[in-house]
Amino acid sequence: MPLVTSTEMFKKAYDGGYAVGAFNVNNMEILQAITEACREEHAPVILQVSKGARAYANHTYLVKLVEAAVIECPEIPIVLHLDHGPDFETCKSCIDGGFTSVMIDASSEPFAKNIEITRKVVEYAHDHGVVVEAELGTLAGVEDDVKVSAEDSSYTHPEEVEEFVSKTGCDSLAIAIGTSHGAYKFTAAQCTRNEKGVLVPPPLRFDVLEEVSRRLPGFPIVLHGSSSVPQEYVQMINAHGGKMPDAVGIPEEQLRKAATLSVCKINIDSDLRLTMTGTIRQFFDEHPDKFDPREYLKPARANIKELVRHKLVDVLGCNGKA
Ligand code: G3H
Ligand code: 13P
Ligand code: ZN
Prior knowledge:
Layout: H1 7-16, E1 20-24, H2 28-41, E2 45-50, H3 51-57, H4 59-72, E3 78-85, H5 88-96, E4 101-104, H6 111-127, E5 131-136, E6 141-143, E7 146-148, H7 161-168, E8 172-175, E9 192-193, E10 199-200, H8 206-215, E11 221-223, H9 231-239, H10 252-260, E12 263-268, H11 270-286, H12 293-316
Parallel strand pairs: 1-2, 1-12, 2-3, 3-4, 4-5, 5-8, 8-11, 11-12
Antiparallel strand pairs: 6-7, 9-10
Helix pairs in contact: 2-4, 2-12, 3-4, 5-6, 9-11, 11-12
The site of zinc ion has 6 residues, from loops.
């Protein structure tokens, strides 16, 4: 089937108590790993491309790679989504350039300005059959070259969501309930330590999510910054020359719970990066004489595929839903 929008996907996810995985695509191996896992698990998928990905790999290469995945995986619905669109022009360029969904992220603007910018994108997108994700509240962490400190992040105010959604006409809403971008989601000071000395992050604010859902019944909610930062790969990186002390993510049971509620889209990028980096570091350590990129990208791709499969089955619950 051709690329789809997320409208039908989100309706089924909301009603079915699961979430669709939104995975960031930056190159062919990552794309293949994601879509092969989704095809084998019969899972719908959102392939998302950031401003940084477009700068790195070029818009046309990324769109053509995704078109190749659509041909190779005709049985699963695939959305091509702009992640963290910074302005109207970038959203327009993706809408004109074959994307079926865009995010306009004006969450750092004051409320009225966020509405104004989002509304403009929604009007253009809907005229072209494209859906729009918007954001209210500010996540901590790093996206593209923007770094938001934990002090400057803020939870979504539930009392603002009805006005925001009705005035903008957005199709889904990303909210801030304590998730964070990157591999260092929380400082050690924000966490407690369990009996094994492992950092335990503060729990997500399910009270905020539940109040948002009460005010927006049936409306799809999105969680960004939802990598769990698997310690297996952090340790693999550290055992093979890397230095990532105290990298910590969102516990998967909490994401699983969010997926059964109104959260229909869960964004995962850092976990793919950690898996690729850990696998390649280990490969180089074990095979210092090898220099063929196909030899080290192949196990990296295989491990990302298994990571994505685990997310589909054990975290998102979207396997078998395509
Ligand atoms: O939220 C940000 C995503 O992980 C994309 O990251 O801007 O480095 O491509 P990027
Ligand atoms: P992570 O950094 O937790 O993978 O979040 C990715 C994301 O939100 C992409 O928009
Ligand atoms: Zn994000």
